[in-house]
From TrEMBL:
Taxonomic superkingdom: Bacteria
Species this chain originates from: Amycolatopsis acidiphila
InterPro entries associated with the record: Asn/Gln_tRNA_amidoTrase-B-like, YqeY/Aim41, YqeY/Aim41_N
Residue ranges that the Swiss-Prot or TrEMBL entry lists as coiled coil: none
Molecular function, one GO term: carbon-nitrogen ligase activity, with glutamine as amido-N-donor
UniProt name for this protein: GatB/YqeY domain-containing protein
Length: 116
């Protein structure tokens, strides 16, 4: 799914499709964020030094192992993005901002194609 999102992002950029570009970038960012290491997990190489307490030292100290998502995780992340856009579109519609609501609905349609 990630490969098809990236390929479609490239095509949307070439086609100058702003709605698709925004939706696809957001979905890819959400997937990348889901892979991020939680802030509360401590590194094994944290030893500290006289300059910075709790600093990691040594080769590769700044590298963190990312979480591995399964193929089942990706559709749920995209589904969450669709739901967020739909809810926000509904709120914008209630506030009389149909222009923003329509844009969010269009982004939700773009992302919902990947849930089939």
């Amino acid at each position: 799914m990630r490969t098809s999102l990236r390929d479609d992002l490239t095509a949307a950029l070439k086609a100058r499709d702003r709605v698709a570009v925004t939706a696809l970038r957001s979905a890819l960012a959400a997937i990348d964020n889901a892979e991020a290491v939680p802030v509360d997990s401590a590194s094994d190489s944290v030893t500290g030094n006289e300059h910075v307490a709790g600093a990691a030292t040594g080769l590769g100290a700044a590298e963190a192992e990312r979480r591995h998502l399964t193929e089942a995780d990706l559709p749920s992340i995209v589904e969450n993005e669709v739901q967020e856009r739909s809810a926000a579109a509904q709120q914008y519609g209630q506030l009389g901002r149909e222009d923003l609501a329509e844009r969010l609905r269009a982004e939700a349609v773009v992302l919902s194609r990947y849930l089939r």
